[in-house]
Amino acid sequence: MNALEIEGLKKRFGTKEVLKGVSFSVPEGCIFGFIGQNGAGKTTTMKTVLGLLQKDAGEIRVFGEPVTYGNTKTNRMVGYLPDVPEFYDYMTTKEYLRLCADITGMPKKEQKSRIDEMLETVGLAGEKHRIGGFSRGMKQRLGIAQALLNKPKLLICDEPTSALDPMGRKEILDALLAAKKETTIIFSTHILSDVERISDRAAILHDGRIVREGTMEELHRVRSERDFFVSAANQQSFIRLAELFPNMIPEEEQGGISRLLWKHGGAEDFRRVLKTVAEESIDIEKAEWKESTLEDQFLEAVGKVDSEDGREAVR
Amino acid sequence: MSGMAFFRKEVTEIVRRKKALIIAIVFAAFALLGIGTALLTPKILDMVAEEMATQGIVMVPKDVTAMDAWMQFFKNIDIPLIVMVLMWAGCFTEEYRRHTLVPLVTKGLKRTDIFLSKVGALLCVWTAGYGLYFLLSYGYTLYYWSDRVPHIIPAVLLEWAFGIWIIGLWAFFSSIASGSFQVLLGVGGVYFLCTFLTIIPKTEKYLPIRLSSGLSLLEEKLAIGDFVIPLCVAGVCFALCIAGGLACIQKKSI
Questions:
Q1: Does residue B229 have a pLDDT over 80?
Q2: Contact across the interface for B17 and A99, Cβ inside 8 Å
Q3: Residues of A with CB below 8 A from B1's CB?
Q4: DSSP three-state, residue A78
Q5: Which structural domains are found in chain A, ordered by start?
Q6: CB contact, 8 Å: A99 with chain B?
């Protein structure tokens, strides 16, 4: 079953159309990375899922139930961690979580053990100071504790790591991985390494539309159908290669050695080139895939492909 | 259930942010100021009279009565009420700005519960502060002056109702405003509009602002019956403000 289904979601603020028909689904039990530039519409999408914003068009369902604007009933299944979680600074962690527990209707006798358990999970057990003195990372961890308090079936995190130092990021990502046992997780981010590290699936939001979506394997497979280079050992070989493969683009490599680029090639193309090189006894330095990262996928999707990063030699 | 939890949060906030203490001090201070002013008036007048006598002007000394103390009561109450509105002007808007309501709403807290809890908390604050103001004034007046003033209780209750009307305006403007200044502008705007309309004799008797004229009741310039219409108008206005506020907060971006 899908934890979340969004179909044709549209949202406009004044004259600006932020979401232009967003559609994707999140299967139950996975960690879903929701990638997009700042201002791409990630927060708008999430707030619409939470019923905090009114959609202009489209359908949103959480575990099959439609989301409505205002006091949506689907929120009983959802936990939410805002991008900048803000709490009442005059309260302690336990007081705040007790407030949350009361609001969710958690029985009093269950509250203490669950609150202690959540504070232990996020590393805030024994923290007796008021929230006003907390660092950003501590607030983020308290945010996760409140989001998971009532054991939601779906946890929505908006940029949970964007303003944290590497240590803080690791703690949050570890907490999300731990939470995966109990809940489906959607987290929006522009930090692609975070998505690569913990996600099972991902979608890239750009210009109000989903431009890539799939499992991490599927996204990697898309990446393998990319560019590859063949570096000639000498000028003669370079000319011969250029004659045999006129579709390949000559490029200047570092150190002045010339190479040829095959854009948007597949494994079959790569094998054909290597076979021809062997049959024609052409001297080459190396042939290599341009093994792009998720960042390349993202940049290509938003029209800014960086063609220099991440190569895997296959010599 | 969730409404009670949020109301408890409001009470905690009022206590821990020292709002309760400040309100208690302000209301008590103005109650004592009223009594002090009434007590000191003869001495001040004596001093002025001596000064005037040297210039050949004779001032007739006036005995201070309980009526003078109650006059101060009704004259001074505006300032604590203004202080309270100023302190609570950002009560809603600060939560919108900091998005502190978002995690709670996504946990199932109803927006109506937020609105009613905040309004309820301020009604309690006003009632408690005004009650303290009244009890201090009443106690000291009883201690220093033995004469009785008619219609004290109705006049005091009308002033309390005036505060409720102001709270209704505060609640409505808080549900639509984005900043505390807009709330103050809204409440102040309606208040000054009503004050302006009092110059039109035909409208004056309908305006809720008449509820703050308790002094006229004590001086018997107005009868209790003269307050029935403004009391009803204030009641309807309060109900409309609450209904409007409940409707607006449902659509409010939090």
A1: yes
A2: no
A3: 102, 105
A4: strand
A5: 2-214 (3.40.50.300), 223-313 (3.30.70)
A6: yes
